[in-house]
Design a protein that fits this description.
The structure is a single chain. With 186 residues, the chain is mostly helical. The chain has helices spanning 2-25, 40-55, 66-79, 81-84, 119-128, 144-155, 163-169, 177-185; strands spanning 107-108, 111-112. A two-stranded antiparallel sheet has the order 1-2. β1 (107-108) and β2 form a beta hairpin. α5 crosses α6. The longest helix is centred in the first third of the chain and has 24 residues, at 2-25.
């Protein structure tokens, strides 16, 4: 009987105290450059994917026509490109985030960005954000149409996009300091 009580004390009291002591006085991985916790991706991925599967819209609210794709490109440029990169130009700091921000115009496997995900999944991620990733929830920043427009744009990233959308998504070349100085002298 004494062993059972000792087992309960160790399991219920001592183990949580040891974990708290390690969190407080140890060096758990909290910096971006630290190695992840063992099985961290699995522990966070399972509930994330389950929640998205349960809550994502199953039907798309808008058509993937030229007007919506161009409007989605404008939303992407203004809200997403800093972290997720432009068409042909990845973000300069995304690789230094943890987890790394996906570059949504890069090829991976048969898809470009998240074009292999249903638009409803991207809609859920944009609307709700993802904890501890740097991905904000845009539901209070963008309206429902804007969230659908950018979601449709990303779902169609592997297809030919309208020229208006491509021109918005291509990074604008900045004049160099020398050329700006030469222009100022004229």
């Amino acid at each position: 009987m004494g062993r059972i009580v000792l087992g309960i004390v160790v399991g219920v009291v001592l183990v949580p105290l040891m974990v708290l002591a390690w969190l407080r006085f140890g060096h758990p991985p909290v910096a971006v450059a630290d190695a992840p916790f063992p099985r961290e991706k699995m522990l966070t991925g399972i509930p994330l994917h389950a929640r998205i599967a349960a809550e994502r819209p199953k039907t798309v609210a808008l058509m993937a026509d030229e007007a919506n794709l161009v409007a989605g490109a404008e939303v992407y440029r203004d809200q997403c490109a800093a972290c997720h990169g432009y068409h042909g130009k990845p973000s300069s700091f995304a690789a230094h985030m943890y987890p790394r921000a996906s570059q949504l115009w890069e090829q991976h496997g048969d898809a470009i960005g998240v074009s292999d995900d249903p638009a409803g999944e991207t809609y859920w991620k944009v609307a709700n954000g993802i904890r501890l990733t740097g991905m904000p929830a845009y539901r209070l920043i963008l309206n429902d149409n804007e969230i659908w427009q950018v979601s449709l744009l990303l779902a169609n990233a592997d297809k030919p996009l309208p020229p208006g959308a491509i021109s918005i998504l291509r990074p604008q070349s900045q004049p160099s300091a020398a050329s700006a100085e030469n222009s100022a002298k004229r």
